[in-house]
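Work Package 4 report. The design task specified in the project plan requires that, given a folded chain encoded as structure tokens, an amino acid be chosen for each position. We show below one input record used in the internal validation round.
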């Protein structure tokens, strides 16, 4: 199996979303993330993801920064480890 055979079409960020890495679990459905734009934000795990998708430290996620409070954001997507590795290979994230 070549590298192109394993390539998947991944969800890419919309205009108002950025890639981020979870750096710290804060509890109460909150995590600390380091965004691709260089800003550390406190991100909220929305109710629709709380029990279905487990988010851990070092996970790659998509966050949607709040436009009225830049140091906060909402998590909109979590990438699997293989998907995160593909994003790194393709140069989307470091």
């Amino acid at each position: 199996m070549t590298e192109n055979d394993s390539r998947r079409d991944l969800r890419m960020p919309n205009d108002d979303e950025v890639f981020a890495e979870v750096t710290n679990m804060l509890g109460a459905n909150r995590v600390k993330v380091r965004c691709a734009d260089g800003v550390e934000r406190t991100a909220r795990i929305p109710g629709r993801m709380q029990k279905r998708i487990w988010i851990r430290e070092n996970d790659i996620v998509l966050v949607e920064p709040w436009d009225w409070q830049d140091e906060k954001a909402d998590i909109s997507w979590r990438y699997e480890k293989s998907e995160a590795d593909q994003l790194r290979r393709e140069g989307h994230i470091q």
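DSSP finds three helices and five strands in the chain. Validation will be extended to a larger panel in the next phase.
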